[in-house]
Amino acid sequence: xxxxxxxxxxxxxxxxxxxxxxxxxxxxxxxxxxxxxxxxxxxxxxxxxxxxxxxxxxxxxxxxxxxxxxxxxxxxxxxxxxxxxxxxxxxxxxxxxxxxxxxxxxxxxxxxxxxxxxxxxxxxxxxxxxxx
Length: 132
Description:
This protein is an alpha+beta fold. It contains three helices and seven strands; from the N terminus they run E-H-H-E-E-E-E-E-E-H. It has helices at residues 25-40, 45-50, 124-127, and strands at residues 3-9, 53-54, 57-64, 73-80, 87-96, 101-110, 112-113. The strands form two sheets. A five-stranded antiparallel β-sheet has the order 1-4-5-6-3, with helices on one face. A two-stranded antiparallel sheet has the order 2-7.
């Protein structure tokens, strides 16, 4: 399965007084990874929402290994865990420029109809582009 990568520098506002990234910011980093994964397929979250599909997170697990620090260049690797159905699952590895693993994570999201808030299957236009 293809791995999508996004790299960026840790901003000062994401850290505490010791220059360490606040643990809650990792969820945002994972979201950035998912958004870019989808964009790499040729689609966007905005496009999905305009088509009446939303993707709430129903599960998030993070294992913290080492602290990310202010101004670190970090990379989020996003990998689709398996072919989606009603749910879509991702595995992530976040590491610094020295290739030290900072965190490993898994998220599960569910495809939902924006109006009815009921689960639906993964849209065909996404399934057609996923090589799993």
